[in-house]
Amino acid sequence: MDHVSFLVVVVIVTALAFDFTNGFHDTANAMATSIATGALRPKVAVAISGALNLVGAFLSVEVAHTISGGIVDDKLVSPAMIFAGLVGAIVWNLLTWLLGLPSSSSHALFGGLIGAVWFSAGSSGVHFDTVVEKILIPAVAAPFVAGFVAMTATYLAYRITAKERSDTTRDGFRIGQIASASLVSLAHGTNDAQKTMGVITLTLISAGALDQGADPPFWVILSAGLAIALGTYIGGWRIIRTMGKGITEIESPQGFAAESGSTAVILASSHLGFALSTTQVCSGAILGSGLGRRLAEVRWNVAGRMAVAWLLTLPAAAGVGALAASVATHGDLGVTIAAVAALAVAAGIYAASRRTPVHSGNVNEVPEQRREPARAAA
Amino acid sequence: MDIKWSSLGQVFVVSLGATVAVVVIFAVGLLAASARQTAVEQGRPATVPAAAAGLCFAACAALVLYGVYLIVPQFH
């Protein structure tokens, strides 16, 4: 590895930092409903999810080639642009985490890369057709598909078990939930750790340390798996609370229906060639499970804020990515400045989160008092 | 631009079918389990509901294993 420069090291560290935010941003997808219904204790849930993400990272290296290839023109991408794109993705992930909003980490990453490449190499470096085909259309479709599936399943679950002993059915659905939530975690590890592996591999290729089309080396797989697992275990409690308690009040039959629906949609979409964002699938499924149970209140203002965050993810991450690229493409000094600025922003967001901390102890409290400051901030 | 509407349609139909199947089988299994529990408490024989519940949960377990099979590329 003679080609590994300061910049490449920075990119790899940043990619792992992104992977970490990806993990704690997405813990909620798999575990929010299990935590909300009491199927799993919060700490146990994130531990299981983290372990399965690590296992998942080792299972598949398939996606790593394509994730970098489709959206932007690989030939134009320099390590500095990749770094800038990652900064955009990390900043957006942290900001949405602070607001407790589930947003797609893959969209943040794509957005950041698009912004950086667009700024540095012009719009010809971005494949807009692919952006619409692989990001925009699926983003609109995912919540509807998952929502309808979960709504139907929830309705049937309540219909079938309506007259039965509530203790048996409640406990039964809780056990079922653990299985379906575990599948979501495993699928997440196989998909999302790939993104970071793809990014690191792409960087090493563009720096000349790896051949075109090379497989990710073992240390890349290991470190990416560990970063996402650690992030998952730390747990994005703010987002878990929004998804478990904020969108709708979830009972165990709904949790089971939502998780089963998410699992089915994620697996079907990755095997039938129409990739959907895990975050949007899971949020849509939870919403659907609220609609499927009569008398369940769906908090549309929370759902609306989520939808706005989804719409903003790509352009906002692209904006930060472009901004970072404007500095980072000017040599090592520029990269250092951008990295320090990104660290400062991250520290600021962390400090802001300490004012209203959410942790495993209060994750199941309905965020009543949170609504006011959240609105004031918006 | 090539939007794969038929793939999306397939995803929708397959996931709807799979989810409804799992949830219905599981819910029926829970019906049987709760019938078994009632029978046990009343001192009646519980073999039939116990067997029905076992069958349903075994079917669900098989579907979970199929899910694991789909996730792990090494199995393909």
From TrEMBL, chain A:
The keyword Transmembrane applies. Its main location: membrane. It is found in: Membrane. Coiled coil: none annotated. InterPro entries: Phos_transporter. It is a multi-pass membrane protein. PANTHER family: LOW-AFFINITY INORGANIC PHOSPHATE TRANSPORTER-RELATED, PHOSPHATE TRANSPORTER. This is Phosphate transporter.
UniProtKB/TrEMBL annotation, chain B:
The chain crosses the membrane at residues 12-34, 46-72. The keyword Transmembrane applies. The keyword Membrane applies. Keywords: Membrane, Transmembrane, Transmembrane helix. This is Secreted protein. It comes from Actinomadura fibrosa.
